[in-house]
Amino acid sequence: MPQFRALAASVTAKGGGVAMFRDDAGGERMTQRMRKLAGTVLLLLSIVVYSALAMAVYAWFLDGAAWWVLIGYFAIAGTLWFFPASWIIRWMAKPD
Q: Which of residues 11 and 96 earns the better pLDDT score?
């Protein structure tokens, strides 16, 4: 066990291993690479969930509505996903 403690202390002192993912306060932080991976998965999931919700709103409230109402609804619903997606992309692109 003493060898393991010495190795862990040297890795921490050199900034390698798991310790390099810690900030100065000792808390965990994500690297930009991990944020991009998590953000990509989050973007894909959010697009699927958002499109399912938009279709559910159409099915529950707008089924049988006039064509011009549907064009307006889908134009607005199709552009509103931009805001949560831009927040996720901004978070992903944050520097380390």
A: 96
CA distance 7 to 12: 9
Q: What angle do CA 81, 34, 39 make, to 5 degrees?
A: 5
> How far apart (Å, rounded) are the C-alpha atoms in residues 92 and 40?
8
* Domain residue limits, the chain: 1-29, 31-96
> What pLDDT digit, counting tens, does each position of 79-94 carry?
999 999 999 999 999 9
Q: How far apart are CA 70 and CA 51, in angstroms?
A: 15
Cβ neighbours for 82, distance < 8 A, ≥ 6 positions apart: none
pLDDT at residue number 7: 43
3-state secondary structure 10-29: HHHHHCCHHHHHECCCCCEC
Q: pLDDT at residue 11 above 70?
A: no
